[in-house]
Amino acid sequence: MHIDLKKEIKQSNFARTGIIILVSMIAVAILAPVLSRYDPTQQTAASLLAPSLSHWLGTNHVGQDIWSQLLYGARISLLVGFSVGILSLILSIFFGLSAAIIGGLYGRIVMRIVDALIIIPMVIAVILVAAYVRPNVLVLILLLSLLSWQGGARVIRAQALALKEEGHVKASATFGAGRFYIARKHILPELTPILLVEFIYGVRRAVFVEAGLAFLGICDPMLISWGTMMHDAMRFTYLNVWQWWLVPAGVALSLTIIGLTFISHAAESVLDPRLRGEAVA
Amino acid sequence: MLEIRDVRVNYGNDTVLNGVDLALDAGETLAIIGESGTGKTTLGLSIMRLTEGTVKGSINLDGKDITALSEKEMQQIRWNRVAMVFQNVNNVLNPVHTVLDQVSEPIVEHKLNSKDEARRKARELLSYFGLPQNRFSAYPHELSGGEQQRVLLAMALSNDPGLLILDEPLSSLDGTTREELGDLLRQIDKKRAQLIITHDFDTASRLSDRIAVLYGGRIVETGPTQEVLRCPRHPYTRALVRAYPNMTTVKDLQGIKGRMTRPVSGCPFHPRCTQAIDICSREMPQLVRTEGRGVACHRGGIITLLSTVNLSKSFDLIKAVDSVSLHIEAGEILALVGQSGSGKTTFAKMIIGLYPPSGGSLYFDGKPIVRRGKDFYRRVQMIFQNPGESLSHRLSVLESVMEPLEIQSIGDPEQRKNKAIQTIEEVELPRTDDFLKKYPHHLSGGEMQRVAIARALVVDPDLLIADEPTSFLDASVGAKILKLLLNLQEHRGLSMIYITHDIAAARKVSDRIAVMLEGRIIEVGASNEIVAAPRQDYTKRLFNSASILSRIEYL
Amino acid sequence: MIKRQNLVTYVIALIFILALSFFLPRMMPGDPLMAIYGDEALIAMTPELKAQLVERFALEQPLWDQFGAYFLALFQGDLGYSYYYNAPVLKVILGSLPWTLLIVGTSLIISTFLGIILGIESGWRRGSKTDRTMLTGLMSLNGFPDFFLGMVLLIIFGVILGICPLAGALTPYSGLSGLPLVLDVLKHMALPVAALTLAHLAGSYLLTRNTMISVLKAPFMLTARAKGLSQNVLKYRHAGRNSMLPVVTMTGIWMGRVVIGALFVELVFAYPGVGQLTYQALLCRDYPIIQGVFLIVTISVLLANFAVDLLYPQLDPRVIHAY
Predict the structure, then answer these.
(1) At A262, which helix (H) or strand (E)?
(2) Which residue of chain C is at minimal alpha-carbon distance from B142?
């Protein structure tokens, strides 16, 4: 079935909104030094100040500028999110595609392992590991990737198996094409829409989990991310500070996730033939 | 009890039903015959107000017009007054409820009985339609196709509706189940009116008293089922019967030329009709009823092209043709079977005007033939036995085929050449220059006969007289010529008088057979009827002496 | 199409879990005992106790024996000893578990039920204003992490409006019993449950809605309509009954998510469940507790998944054959 993914997504309200949000967040992250004045890790004023002209969102309990933290926090969340998304996708493609193409005992074993790992809740496993190994960003990315590729692998394998049976694939086999050639030239390109969806899912999940783990205080406390901001702010809910400390971080995080959700919903609607013709909101 | 008047149904810009009139009384079973895309399912759904399209016109159930009712009011009517047996496809029943639940559900929901009573009634119905007791609590996917059909039938009767609409009720079933359920349906007939929607003549023949043929969103023919099937009056109905594999007719199957399209104006069938005239493309014909049968055709149905009344020819004292009265309809092949000397060729030559008749009269297109001018020869042509003789050895292929056009002064030389070449292609001969320049003595027997046929067809005649066209040819070649003639009939709507001594060949090619002996027609009728039950001894002898390939006795 | 697991998969998962929990401390550099118990706990131990523990966990023996000892201990319900609570790990965890189960269970039931109903209504009206509003609204809601939602609810209802309590599962030192006790519990769990429910509502809603859209196109829906059944019967008995099946399948997988969500939410509301326990354990490196929580939570999720797998054929008659 020939779907012009780009065109369809452009027409969807959900997709457009989501993309706008996401692009804004990325822009904010990149332009953080330009848009803010202070180093988010430096103490620049007294603690718990209300918003003012010099500190747009006031300061936190250590005297760091919240606005700067908000902007730089975007970097960590997005960095982790996208890195895990990519790495996870690569692992999914590798295992899912190979399981489908090679099949046989290898395929069955891989899928058993995948099924088993899917049941295990990711966050708890990370908590366990993080208890022993205080993770820095790199370790965190690796860890999250290792625990989140399974879902995508399952979907990719199912799709690849179905594609393997399609006419044009079988035809190229009659021309003498080997399995890997077929995988590279015929199957992989057809998977692009699915891969896109899985990627967005992966990023979304990673942003979510990173924030949650930061909120639990598992990550490096030196690292400023939205999650750590919320973790710190939580202790001061009885004061007024939550208005300009907690809420912006939470809203920024939620907006990012919402943006990703919208995009993935739009992509899903396009791919699933049963949902097409949806009165796109 | 059901009366439908001028119902039109549209889906957006698509007109599916274009003015349908029907009437059905209690106790009657009417079959609606149509191929896919004719709108028959839409008709059924419209009666229950379940279509997505817009419905115009009036649908009267027991005297009340239901097109004006609200959805809530329709909910009261559905299943209680009219119920539908849907096509037996996958998932036509809800997969997560047992069949017993689904049959008793409408009884309970319409508050006709208590839950227990409803279940009891449901059990009765399921048993009546032959579902084994141990399948009552089964889920739909656990049942076979036949069992599922029984459930659908039982379910439709649960609220005792006065009108039952059945959409392809027997199509998904095998032979014995078909018979069993068919009989059951005929038995419940007495109290209810049934509307059977199908494309299948066997179903219609089995279940219905009357039949209505649907084409292009309109009814084109109605009448008692057996009569219509035996003797269709509308060209479409006849073509449909010819296309339908069955154990009754003996002629080879033929399709209908063209594809189903929706012409903008005029009769919906006219692009594919072989007797269409001017008015057919402009105005919609109305359904005209006479003596219980109705036809919607500007020409009043299939027309009679040629008829002879007591035609006779004597040579001195010998009566070659003795008082022959025959008729040929448009689009029909009549085989004239007899031995040599029976007078069949003489008869043919009288029609074409080579012999003047000694007595009797000839009518063509309803008018007596007094004088045969060019216009007659434009419409009636003949193919002779021996192509070697009937083709001039001095004219090339192209010249032979162009000759009638020149005689008739049709078109300019360029157009004549094109028409001739077109017709040569039609008889499956090559159109290369090399071939067109050949002379008859360069051609094989089969090729020569094809040229002769092309020559006869080039003026687009309505009636072709073929006098033993294959007797000078080898069997394999002859077979191809016969198939060619059948294709030409399908494509052009030609009528043909096929003269032969071989009743076996006649059987494969003709719609009607006339048996001629010593100048008289001793038996005439539909081919399948003559083959199945010949009445005259001579006819029986003809069949007995006809070619038999296998002499194994089948016990 | 959701694939159903079978027993072998669960066994493999179990092995992974045990392996992770076994190998992790033992792969850390340094004294394995420290890795298992944490250096701070170790400081408080006497040398005799240390020797005893080394003996018990066979820490000087080859790895295989260690695993045997570990497994044996597990089997006997011995998850280790927490020095901070001065009690066996199992006992500590079991003390907190009921509270977590309370809010997890309640929110799971409510969010699934509500999600299904909203999904049915939304799918039935697909494309209408109601549908689009619900879709946008719930998808946006889905973007809020449970802990943030919890905090927002806490601030609005707890701090500003003062309707709900700010922390804990019970009013401390109240000595209530009977109906007042029940009401007190309900008051305290209202916000945590609300946060969890709202955060996870979208999952069942979207899945139900999507399934509903394809179910409505099925032939049996036309059959049901032809029977003159009322709208509600069509919506729920016919379409709805078919649309909720995928949600039930996914409930097992989603359970893990809700449990994790509960961990976060407990933190926000200082609710004395397993999440709070874990957080405290992380702060003071009480490894036995962390290990114990990991094992108990993951194995519970596994068992819940398994239970759902067993239950599913009751709901979908087509599956009886596949088993």
Answers:
(1) helix A246-271
(2) C318
CA distance linking residue B49 with residue B70, whole number of Å: 10
> Per DSSP, which regions of chain C are E strands?
81-82, 87-88
Put simply, the chain C residues between 247 and 276 with a CB less than 8 A from any chain B CB are none
Cα(B391)–Cα(B388) distance, integer angstroms: 6
The phi, psi pair for A255, rounded to 5°, reads -60, -45
Note whether C226 contacts B94, CB cutoff 8 Å. Answer: no
Write out chain B residues lying below 8 Å of C316, CB-based: 96
In a mutational test of the C interface, the residue from B94, B112, B157 whose CB has the highest number of chain C CBs within 10 Å is: B94
Around Cβ B518, how many Cβ atoms within 10 Å?
15
Residue of B164, B45, B174, B148 lying closest to B95 (CA atoms): B148
Is chain B touching chain A, with at least 3 CB–CB pairs below 8 Å?
A: no
CA atoms of B207 and B226, how far apart (whole Å): 11
Per-residue burial over C49-75, b = 16 or more CB atoms within 10 Å of its CB, e = otherwise = ebeebeeebbbeeeeeebbebbeeeee
Taking the whole predicted model, whether its pTM rises above 0.80 is answered as no
Instruction: Flag whether the ipTM exceeds 0.90.
Output: no
Identity at B533, one-letter amino acid code: A
**Binary contact (B86, C228; C-beta < 8 A):** no
Q: What residue of C is the nearest CA neighbor of A15?
A: C136
Under 8 Å between Cβ of C147 and A212: yes
Give CA separation, B492 vs B271, B365, B461, in Å.
Answer: 12, 17, 9
Which band of pLDDT confidence, cut at 50, 70 and 90, is reported for residue C120?
A: very high
Residue of chain C nearest A237, judged by CA positions: C155
**What does the alpha-carbon distance between residue C152 and residue C158 come to, in Å, rounded to a whole number?**
9
As a whole number of angstroms, the distance between CA A90 and CA A186 comes to: 18
How many Å apart are CA A237 and CA B435, to the nearest integer?
101
The class level of CATH for B304-545 reads alpha beta
* Two structure tokens written together for A66: 């919240």
Asked whether C89 and C80 are in contact (CB, 8 A), the reply is yes
In C213-252, the residues whose Cβ lies within 8 Å of chain A are 213-214, 217
- For residue C3, give the DSSP letter: P
- Which tokens belong to C267? 């933190």
Region A197-214: mean pLDDT is 88
- Dmax over CA atoms of chain A, in Å, equals 75
Flag whether residue C130 sits within 8 Å of chain A, measured between CB atoms. Answer: no
**Does C284 contact A at CB distance below 8 Å?**
no
Q: Does C253 touch chain A (CB under 8 A)?
A: yes
Q: How far apart are CA A240 and CA B92, in angstroms?
A: 62
Task: Name every residue whose Cβ is closer than 8 Å to that of residue B377 and which is 6 or more positions away in sequence.
Answer: B404, B408, B459
∠ CA C279-C285-C289 to the nearest 5 degrees? 65
Enter the CATH code of domain A11-30+64-273: 1.10.3720.10
Q: For the segment B439-483, what is each residue's pLDDT rounded down to a tens digit?
A: 888 888 888 888 988 888 888 888 999 988 888 787 788 888 888
Q: Is the pLDDT of residue A219 over 80?
A: no
Architecture of domain B2-81+161-296: 3-Layer(aba) Sandwich (3.40)
Q: Which of C220, C228, C315 sits opposite B78 (nearest CB)?
A: C228
Q: Which uninterrupted H or E stretch holds B219? A: strand B218-224
Looking at the partner chain, which of A119, A129, A253 has a beta carbon nearest the beta carbon of C13? Answer: A119
Residue-wise pLDDT for C123-176, tens only, equals 898 888 888 889 889 988 888 888 888 888 888 887 777 777 777 777 776 666
List, by residue range, all CATH 3.40.50.300 domains of chain B: 2-81+161-296, 304-545
Best of B42, B78, B91 to mutate (most C CBs within 10 Å, chain C): B91
Q: Are A40 and A74 in contact (CB under 8 A)?
A: no
Length of chain A: 281
What is the identity of the amino acid at A145?
Answer: S
